[in-house]
Amino acid sequence: MPPPPPLGRSRKRAREGFDAALDDSELAAARDALDRGRWTAVRSLLADTSDDWDRRGHRLVVLGQAPSTASWAEEWRLAEPESADAAALVAAADVFRALRGKLRPESAQETCRTAAALAPDDPTPWLGLLLLARSLGTEEEVLQLFDEVRHRHPDHHHAHHLMVARLAERRPAAGQDPMHEVYDFASWAAEQAPADSPLSLLPVIAHTERYRVLAAAGSEPADPAASDHWSGRRARGVMRRAFDWWLEWDGIHHPRGRIDLNFLAHGKFCEGRAAEAAALFQRIGPHATPAPWSYPNRDPDKSFRAARRAAFGSA
User: Fold this and answer.
1) CB 276 within 8 A of CB 288
2) Residue 119 confidence (pLDDT)
3) Nearest 5°: CA angle at 83, between 79 and 84?
């Protein structure tokens, strides 16, 4: 097994920790340009993205997270008031301002609906509303907004991840119940998706999100590697099928593929499958993600690095 690749980043991004842009270098460049007030770079990026809905959603979510985006997005919208892309960027920025407590959620919802009206086929403004509802809304609102996204793009990756995370939080007192609804949903979504869709890995996401909930409730150890959550028959089957899918299809080319790889590597490490985990860490490279390495309330950088070292040391 070759040594692990370096975890190098630019000095600017190293100070900021995990890079939500993942391996999208065009997105990272446009985000840096926007931070300097050059919104035309984002205009070109979104025009090139067109109706690749998963990529568009990923890019707008990452751009919307930057604190400086709101002011530059508004400048763009004032310059081009009919631009659906400008409206979508304003909406994305407002969603994250609302989630940080810097804007009333109702205001963010309004800008999302304005963006949706300018581009009726685009699921991304509805994804923004779903992000808000995931944290601040009722379960009925979450389900309704998920349906709006799925109506426009049935295999929407981010929306399915949000639904799994929310469903995993139902009935924490039920413990390791293998019939929990989050597992049913993940299995259904994976079966509905095309064979080459990374939604095939959704059962792994469900298993990990459920661990987050159970560990937070105190019914599972805080160290996931010490938990038997990954050792049962159901868990082993989920992890085996997911790893086999990755070997056959390799979802790395999906804009959010590195997120799936992090969940799969985390699960394989917790399962004690060092060689398989090491192969996944090799493909992740420098693109670690906070979830699931932060589960539950852990330092994600330390958790990722420790698991990575252990996997390469044992493989």
Assistant:
1) no
2) 98
3) 145
CA–CA distance, 300 with 292 (Å, rounded to integer): 8
C-alpha angle with apex 235: 302 to 174, nearest 5 degrees?
A: 90
Burial class of 80 by CB neighbour count within 10 A (0 to 12, 13 to 18, 19+): middle
- pLDDT category at 78 given cuts 50, 70, 90 is very high
- Residue 294 to residues 120, 178, 289, Cα–Cα distance (Å): 36, 24, 9
Q: What share of the chain is helix, strand, coil (3-state, %, to 5)?
A: 70, 0, 30
Cβ 64 vs Cβ 93: under 8 Å:
yes
- Sequential DSSP letters for 69-138: HHHHHHHHHHH-TT-HHHHHHHHHHHHHHHHTTSS-HHHHHHHHHHHHHH-TT-SHHHHHHHHHHHHHS-
